[in-house]
Every structure is written in C-alpha cells, then in structure tokens.
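$ ./design --mode recover --in tokens.txt
reading tokens...
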C-alpha cells in the first residue's frame, strides 16, 4: 500500500526520489521520508508526518547525493502517523536504511529478541525490526545483499523492501516476499530505478523487470543481478512497456477525481476499441489466452474484487449470465479464500482490480489456481502482479487513475466485463450473430451516452448545495441499480466522509426503513426499466415516513416530480448499459459534496489507492 522509490546513478538522487514519490502519493500520505548518501559519504535521512509537501520543506536545500537514494510514502498500519514512525528506518548505527511495504507479522517476537541483543528501537512500527536484523547480519560478516536475504528469511508476512547502506554507497537491494506489494526495477541510461509502481519511474524509463515472490535484486547504476532469498541466481530479462501510459496531470481541473470523471467516455471507448467488431460482429481479446476447448468446458464463473471492483463483479455476474448463459456469482476477494471455495478446472475465476496489486485479490487468485480453476483478470495496469499471475487478461484502457476513489476504472471494468461476457457467449454459441451484434451495438453507443450523463453536473451541484449538511444518506436501487446504489454510497463515504448506505430497495422494509425521517436524504435510482413500478412503491414508502427523495430518473419522465423533491435526469440507455450511466451522477454527487465540505477529494483520509496489506 505504501509507495517505494529508489535511484542509483550519476544524477542528483534527492530530486529524482522526491519526484518519484510525488507520482506515488496516492498509495499513502500519512508520512514520507528519504535516505541518501550525501556528498560526504554519510547516510542522511529526512522524514515528516503528513503529505509529501511537508517532507519537501524539511529536506535541506544543500543536500546533494549522486550515488543512491531511497524514499517512501506511508499508509500507516503499525504505529501512528508521526515523524518517528515514518520510513526509512535505520539500525542502531544509522548506517543502514530500510523502507518497507507490508506487514511483519512476527515483529513482536523479533523485537524482543533484538532488544535482548542490544538493539535500541525508536519507533512503534513493525518495519524497524528489518534494519536491525540486517545489522545483525552485517556484524556476522555479510554484505548488504546477503544480510537482507538473511533478515527476510526470518520474517513472517508480506514484505516489499528496499535497503541502502553507507558502506556500499552505489548499491540498492530490493526484495519481495510473501506476495507483498509490487517491486519494479527500471533500466535507465547509465542509471537504475526501483519503485512499487510504474508511475514513479515511467518518465525515465519503460524498460523494466518485475520481482516475483521470493526474489531479490542487487542494483547498481550498471544494472541488476537477481537471486532468490537463498542466493540462487535467477535470470530475468527486461521488458519494454508502452510509454506515456503512466503519467497524468490535472490539466484545467481542480482535482484528479473531476478530471477522471470527465475522461469516462474516452475510457469506455478506449477499452472497447479494437476488441469489439461490428461487421461481422465479434469480440477479440488477444490477451485472454483461453482456448476454445477451455471456454466450451466452462460450467461456472466466479467474479471477485474489492471495493469498487467488487461492485464491478456484481454487475459482471449479470453480464455473464445474460450474455454468456453461464451460472455466475460475485464474491468479496478478502473473504473468498478463507471459505474453502469449491472449484475445479471447469470454473473460470475473474479477478477485477484497477492496479492489479491488491493483496486480497492476489491471494484469492492464488487460492483459485491452487484449487485448479482457470483464472483471468480484468486490469488497468500492464505488467502488474495480477496480469502475471493470471492465465490471461482483459485490459481496461483507462490511462492512469490518480484519485484514490475509483471512477473511470469502474466504467472501464464494466466495459471489459461486458466484452468478456460477449466473448464467452460468442465462443459458446449462446449469442446468435444478431444478438451479438445488438449487444455490441449497445456497447458502441455507451461512450456517447456517458458523455450525455456528464451533463447532469449542474443538477447534481444544486442537490449537493441543498444537502451539504446532511450527516447520513441512503441509496436505493433494484436489479442492476442495486449495485449502483452501493457504489454511490461507497463514493460518498470515501470522499465526503458522510455516512451512507446502499440497499436493495426491496430490502428496505426489512430494517433500514426504521432510519428514515425528515433529515434523511434518500437517493432512489428510478430509471425506466423492468423494476420502475416497484421502485415507485419504494419511493412512496420513503415519503410516507417523511424521507427526502432525490430521484435519478430517465429523461422525459416528468411524473417523477410528483414523487421526489429533487430529480436528476440521466439519458435513456439499453438495460445492460444503464449501470454505467447512473454511476456518473453518483460520482458527481460525492465529488461536489466533498468539495463543499472542504474535504481532500483526491487523497481522502485513511485511504490509499492500492491496498497491499491485509
């Protein structure tokens, strides 16, 4: 979840590391820190609580380093967000610096052992055991790389680690253990870079190597050597990734979230482009790598994800059932592997995630593979762990999404899932040519309809101003709009800190109806679909208890004004496309309420973009 950056080469390390961290601040912004070998050959650290700007102000302007440097943005797990708990952490001598993404599960036992051996601890973190373990290895005569390997063999839990030692100023050692967050090694011109995610290094190189579980890299400006944690050599060849895909700016927008909401028509278009063919109708998923016989042998599909990606899975389940004719279910990835799922070679598990680095989803993928299922991923990040673990990938082509709250990748993932469902239906003969053409024609219209939905912003702003002081919201939907209700509630919670719940409208009278009063805004998704008449009944139930109804309705439905205090109109759309359309005003409502409340829209408190710890 934390951001890691390392540099070794001829250029000024401080600026490069800080610039890299600025590209990873979405991964953690409770605190930040750097360590470099200064011009006098002394390991020097600077760190502070809060966002990266705080650290920049603390770094001495005279600090120069042309050998190596490491940096970290933290999302706190063990220990509060304080300067002492910020990374890097050092050993007793201050000559070894370590940054870490993950959790050391046996840190208490290790801390007690190390204290008994004379080590002094300064922080509350689990990470601090690592530099002290390395220190013990150095005292036994090991070099930095071997000492890091020995330390990591003692650790239980996830660990993506980057280490620097004063006595080896031109060397960085990186390692990844127990499926921790990503570690990518970048090959530059006479320089090398290390990061937990591609945006940190994309401006300097696209030639990269990804570390897998249990692998280490010893990096100098000339290149890298790779081993496992027991010193066995590993051959790894750099791959070249597409340039320009990982750098983003806000442009004319005040926030990345606003920019990314506005980019959704393009995100949908880029995801379906080249995959959907209308004449003759066909879907081409070149990175899926499922043979026709494997597709024909499927008898069940399981979709897994976390947060917004779990909501994508719930919509995707309906796509698979209606477009591929296969039984489908959606599950929360963090719970999935613990319930001993029943899987076999005829089950397809679809793992959904924008980053491809979320630890719970990766663990669920490992469990599904272990039990013999076929595993593919829907992902926005080429080269991510999920894409390397899966048999095949359906890519969202959304570009970099920087804001912590997912918006364009939600619509991108729904587009990818729709394509995948059509592909399965096409291969299995469930969709006739006419039905496939109709389905793809609906999808081809989606970018234009999403663009029309963005025009709801003025109406959404009016609603946001009216209810900016509300402390609770209820979101109601039926059918596929039930998922939109949950996604709308999640977005509101994430960025505005307003308590919100999303419910199936028919479930309301089984408990939540007791919460409704004259202070409760209720967002009712009442578009013209097969559930419309029943949604009107649910709206009447809210009104009978003095609830405030905000209706999301289909354009032209003037009668809805008799039922709702406020109405936000969305364009009409085909039934399977409608969840993409109604998601847009949900996102805009969360954004504008957060702005009015003065919240940090792009970096909400306590959240990080990529969750790489359980």
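writing sequence...
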């Amino acid at each position: 979840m934390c951001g890691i950056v390392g540099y070794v080469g001829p250029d000024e390390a401080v600026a490069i590391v800080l610039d890299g961290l600025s590209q990873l601040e979405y991964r953690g912004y409770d605190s930040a820190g750097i360590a470099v070998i200064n011009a006098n050959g002394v390991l020097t650290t600077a760190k502070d609580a809060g966002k990266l700007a705080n650290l920049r102000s603390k770094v001495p302007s005279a600090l120069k380093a042309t050998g190596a440097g490491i940096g970290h943005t933290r999302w706190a797990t063990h220990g509060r967000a304080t300067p002492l708990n910020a990374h890097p952490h050092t050993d007793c001598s201050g000559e070894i610096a370590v940054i870490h993404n993950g959790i050391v599960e046996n840190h208490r036992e290790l801390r007690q052992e190390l204290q008994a051996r004379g080590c002094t601890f300064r922080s509350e973190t689990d990470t601090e055991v690592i530099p002290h373990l390395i220190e013990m290895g150095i005292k036994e005569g090991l070099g930095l790389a071997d000492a890091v390997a020995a330390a990591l063999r003692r650790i239980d839990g996830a660990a993506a680690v980057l280490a620097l030692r004063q006595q080896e100023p031109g060397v960085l050692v990186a390692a990844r253990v127990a499926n921790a967050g990503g570690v990518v090694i970048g090959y530059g011109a006479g320089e090398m870079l290390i990061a937990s995610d591609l945006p940190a290094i994309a401006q300097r190189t696209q030639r990269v190597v990804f570390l897998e579980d249990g692998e280490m890299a010893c990096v100098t400006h000339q290149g890298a050597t790779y081993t496992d944690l027991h010193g066995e050599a590993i051959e790894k060849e750099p791959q070249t990734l597409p340039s320009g895909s990982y750098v983003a700016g806000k442009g004319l927008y005040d926030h990345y979230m606003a920019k990314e909401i506005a980019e959704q028509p393009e995100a949908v278009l880029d995801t379906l482009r080249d995959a959907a063919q209308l004449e003759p109708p066909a879907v081409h998923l070149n990175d899926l790598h499922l043979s026709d016989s494997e597709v024909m042998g499927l008898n069940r599909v399981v979709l897994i994800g976390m947060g917004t990606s779990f909501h994508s899975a719930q919509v995707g389940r309906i796509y698979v059932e209606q477009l591929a004719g296969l039984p489908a279910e959606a599950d929360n990835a963090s719970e999935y592997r613990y319930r001993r799922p029943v899987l076999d070679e005829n089950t397809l598990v679809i793992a959904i995630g924008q980053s491809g680095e979320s630890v719970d989803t990766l663990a669920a993928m490992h469990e599904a593979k272990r039990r013999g299922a076929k595993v593919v991923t829907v992902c926005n990040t080429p080269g991510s762990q999920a894409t390397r673990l899966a048999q095949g990938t359906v890519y969202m082509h959304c570009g970099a999404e920087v804001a912590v709250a997912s918006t364009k990748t939600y619509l991108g993932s729904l587009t990818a899932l729709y394509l995948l469902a059509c592909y399965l239906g096409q291969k299995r003969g469930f969709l006739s040519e006419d039905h496939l053409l109709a389905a793809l024609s609906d999808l081809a219209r989606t970018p234009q309809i999403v663009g029309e939905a963005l025009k709801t912003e003025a109406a959404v702003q009016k609603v946001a101003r009216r209810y900016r002081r509300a402390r609770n919201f209820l979101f109601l939907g039926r059918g596929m709009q039930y998922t939109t209700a949950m996604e709308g509630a999640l977005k509101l919670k994430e960025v505005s800190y307003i308590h919100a719940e999303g419910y199936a409208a028919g479930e309301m009278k089984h408990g939540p109806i007791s919460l409704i009063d004259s202070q409760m805004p209720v967002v009712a998704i009442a578009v013209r679909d097969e559930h419309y008449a029943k949604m009107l009944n649910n709206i009447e139930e809210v009104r009978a208890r003095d609830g405030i109804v905000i209706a999301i309705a289909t354009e032209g439905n003037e009668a809805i004004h008799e039922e709702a205090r406020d109405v936000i109109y969305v364009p009409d759309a085909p039934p399977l496309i409608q969840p993409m359309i109604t998601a847009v005003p949900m996102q805009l409502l969360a954004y504008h309420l957060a702005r009015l409340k003065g919240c940090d829209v792009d970096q909400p408190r306590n959240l990080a973009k990529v969750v790489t710890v359980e």
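exit 0
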